[in-house]
């Protein structure tokens, strides 16, 4: 809603300061005159000159008149120029120079697919036009492995210049710590006429080739464009103190404003503004809520800015420190709809044009429409700028019409339109609550203790109290500038310079080195701020060390100090974040960070002239919490300091509306802020859990249960020790009901989907007398296990005064080693289960709250081939127990907030909802059969037979049990069926036991899908699962075969063990090419970053590239596999469990097959034969080369 307050003519001679936030819909401009009087303008952002138009408006001069230089003292601005250029791919023409062997690394990235159930995943196109490799290599310690080829580098630079590249990004392996090659390449590029040169160590000097490389590319892509914009503005404001908001929460001088640090400048201003507003009232712990038309930004603060190491924006990973802001697609313009039996809100938005239905321009039903129908907005308070001609007020009738249409689709009676509107708002609030929890509760903060919610943005006040109730927060603060608080925060922000550099030393012996590195960062940071005008006495410098446990990449920042003080701060933060402290004698200083800042502004002393009251109704019919009443309408202009309000009521500011529900009271503070407190805890209206489910409650409970599983996963990842769980994300977490039926499974690894239910039921059957404080450990294939390294922890949840568990929490993680004949517990030539490691069949890992460490160690050591690293197993098990404890705590909270009967009822309802989604799929399925062969001669045959209300998946014709390890326990077949059905449905349906209720699975006894209890199964989980997915998708006619394998590579010796799965080509489909170099189907684990791999293992990664030409030909081609070359620096044993080395991935409808994979060990250039299929013994200097399969093509070329 545009709102303009013109400056008083009496201030015409004074120099003004302007604070500007250029948003997607409106540009907010705050002007402060020489007397401290504050004025506000809102200008539509579609005007390219919106910022200066707002300045002119506040100065009271003509729209195109020159700006009087003497009247503008300073401008502080947040801009979306960089963000929009990234979203629209309108940056500069860019080239990339990278170390030889890694020209495709920013295409492959971490090898994961962005959407787990998308059969045809597509990654964002790279920002660079051309990537060229340059010979020359340094190792992890900076030693020269290969001299930089300067002649080749010059030729590459000339190619980039000839291709029209305006800028070049330079990314060298280990360049963050050893930048010599990057610096030489930069000199060569400049000598060839390339002036805009960006070196990765200068952009972000931290370890991680992929993240640092992508950040450098983003910086090089955006900075030239951003600087052209900045300098053009500077020319129009000569002599003006011009500064820009950075994503890290600080200002930068015009010439220091770079693309990678400008992406979240608007949201960062909002966080700074929220902290400043809260500080005026003694509030240190807060959650900020910035709700606009399209999305909502939330953040957590405890008196100071909280930062993340980076974020993903428009598909690009940007690894620079930025404020920890979580964005959710739930704004006032979020579209309300109905699909699969559930009310959905967002992520689509109506935008500013056509806007919500009430704008009168044919827009859809949105959250704003629902608030209007509920009386949470006063139509008369909006200007007449709507309708086709922009001359009408809001149209509530249009909102009701669209609401009635939704009611018919969702099955609401015509008399229940307001109930439907309230339900839609409830869903939106639940989406926001989930976003808030991600930045607060998941970080170990208890929001019920002394927190306030600071709400702002155009729609923040409409939902603030309801969201606070959902989060257990008892206070809400709304500043009089709530509608433009991001602009205020930009004006108050301090000049800030952050510098970070990787170190990677042992903390105990590295304090002196850390002090030296910090000093080296501090000097240029201070110099830069002093040059920008910050006085020495105003400078503040914070020195921090980013600590982590050995083997982990999750760091915690602590203040640099004594060794004991840093250890204490790390331990306390770890306990708060993850609920436990790992006993670790060593801590690693991963990086150091210096933050230099100037003085920040304050809201104190600023005065906004009181606006004249408007002729508005004194009361409005408002509905809150299922109850309607005639609520008072207060105009902030009439509320003096000390005035009190009681809900239900509306409080109208010029740029925002606040809805105060029943049970809340408020008081106006001296600065005009509205301080709201919850006077009474409102219980949700009693609901009957049985009977027909409410579509909105169905969506809310789906979100609640999924959030619990996701929070469990967050705890597990951050508390685990092993690379497999922490880095590769080879784990899953899930929630089960009292029967052991799956309720919610966070979509981590597809092969775990649905397979843990059998494990929970096995634990229930084996332990009829469960007690609180018990937990069981399972990996036995006969008890729902998949393969032995996948250890599952099952924890029952008892409610007070109950003797039987109501729910179960479950976490499954791939442990690096669990014993067996080879490191990694996946011997390629195993013939018996015992050869693959230690078997745990409902082992009591916790009894009465006591961890059975001694018994567990005994079991690991007593095996014929003992586990190689029991300490790591224990550390990962403790992390799994912590994850389950987190799930139990959140499930208890849900029972308290929603009611036990309601929780249990909706567990049943969401299972029924998932079942119905599968039933709706059946008419679209045709009967089909597909046989897929394995390299060893076996085969999987799948037949789809859809019937009336049932789907039969018949695997008759599948080969008999394999004499080796190519056998899959029944849980793997169920997981593959679960995954394929979810892909075929194509809608976002709940992942729970209901998906399989209408499905019958038949597997032949004695086949490789139902092997005997002693059969080896290591390859079944990883390889047969892929063949199952290939056979089922082929039978459904959905897609050509993807690479058909996980390429399970493990190597190690007595000192270390390492395991990874390697991506390949995806299969093509009708009109859809397969993706290159991506994990497909039953796995989606990440691959370790090249620099991290070389730091942790005695290897050199010589090449990681796309295997061009390996995808099957066709009308739509199959995706290409990859080439991965590893040179070993010490002797190791190698195991490769893989398929599609003899049998090529099939094409469909005339499409060609993908190329087969290949594994070769080379010694001085000659092949070394394997000791057994898939097993080698390598010497130092040997090279192992993996070429992964391509995907099949679709249709005749």
From TrEMBL:
Molecular function (GO) terms listed? 5-oxoprolinase (ATP-hydrolyzing) activity
Every Hydantoinase B/oxoprolinase domain range: 694-1196
A Gene Ontology cellular-component term:
cytosol
Report the InterPro entries cross-referenced here.
Hydant_A_N (IPR008040), Hydantoinase_A (IPR002821), Hydantoinase_B (IPR003692), Oxoprolinase-like (IPR045079)
Q: Where is the Hydantoinase A/oxoprolinase domain?
A: 212-497
Tell me one GO biological process term.
glutathione metabolic process
The source's superkingdom equals Bacteria
The Hydantoinase/oxoprolinase N-terminal domain is annotated at: 17-191
- Family affiliation: Belongs to the oxoprolinase family.
Protein name as annotated: Hydantoinase B/oxoprolinase family protein
